[in-house]
Structure formats: structure tokens, C-alpha cells
Amino acid sequence: MLAGFLPILNTPEEQADFAALYARCGARAMALARRILKDAALAEDAVHDGFAYLADHYQRLKDGSPEQMERYLFQCVESRALNAAALRQRETVWGAGAPELPDGGPEPEGQTEQADRLAQAVAAMERLPAGYRAILELACTGWTPGEIAEILGLSPAVVQKRLERARKTVRKEVDGEDA
Asked: Which of 5, 19, 22, 92 has the fewest CB atoms within 10 Å, counting from its CB?
């Protein structure tokens, strides 16, 4: 798996640093994903996606300490594992397709609008700066600001302020206001 990420990185030094991170954290990241997903294949996908995201954004993240990089990696893996678990749960409840309406008719008014607003919110979240997006994603998956602060190595006040700003930015974008 590691060999696929190394060409993304610019210098041999970055490749060596990334390989060292992989060696230090790969097994623990897999254990985290397996604990959440209880499925080896899905856990491997979550770990792969977490490392791929880190490799893609390595230029922005490399200036932090190794501990910050590790925390960010585990947050990425956990986020992807939780998303996969939620998707699996939805598929278990609804099956592979969308739920059918009892009368087989068209969707009720408002459902399409809600789906559009949700898509806008997800797109707005993806455009947030990485630090804000990470905090908002963790909050959306049930983490408290105190827990997020501990995971990311920030103060609870900083986490709360960034969370407020991220939510406000997403709301403005979804509601069509100037951000």
C-alpha cells in the first residue's frame, strides 16, 4: 500500500518521512478502523483513504510536528471509518437503493429540496480550510468540543470558535448569502 503514495510526494526526504509515519502508525490506524468497522476489508479501505488524503495534502501539513501529523492521520482514518460504518448501517436499513414510497408515487415535495440543501452543505464543508473542516466533521460524527480539542491538540476555546465559524460559513453558503 505504501508504494502507491510515495510518487505523490515531491522529494526523497518527504518520501522517507511519510514512510516512517506509515511504519509508526499503519498498524494502529488499522486497529482503529477495525475497531469501528469490525470488517478487515472496510478497515483497510479506510486506512488507505486516510493515508491517501494525507499524501495528497502533505505539502500543507508537513510543517507541523510529527505528533500533529499522527493525530491528523488518526482523525482522517477515524472519519473515513465512521463514514463507512454509517453507510453500511444505511444500506442495512434501506438496502442498496433508496427507500420506496408506499404508493410508489413521486417523492413528496420538500424531499428533493432537502437533498439539494444537504448536497450544498457537504460541498460547502469540503471547501472549508482543513482545520475547520476537520473540527466540523468530528463534531458531525458526535465528538464533543473537549474531545476534539484533545484529539487535535488544541484548546477547547479554539475548537469551539472554529466550530462556530465553520458552521456559520456553511450556513451562509447553503442559504445563498455572501460568506
From this structure: 92
Torsion angle defined by CA atoms of residues 150, 156, 158 and 164, in that order, rounded to the nearest 10 degrees: 110
Scanning 57-179, the segments in alpha helix (DSSP H) are: 58-61, 66-94, 111-127, 130-140, 145-152, 156-175
Q: Which residue has the cell 522517507?
A: 16
Residues 6+ apart with CB under 8 A from 9: 15, 18, 55, 58
pLDDT in tens, 107-153: 555 556 666 777 788 888 888 888 888 888 888 877 888 888 887 88
pLDDT of residue 148: 86
CA angle 47, 32, 147 (to 5 degrees): 110
Which value, to the nearest 10 degrees, does the dihedral of the CA atoms of residues 89, 90, 92, 95 take? Answer: -160
Cβ neighbours around 83 below 10 Å, total: 15
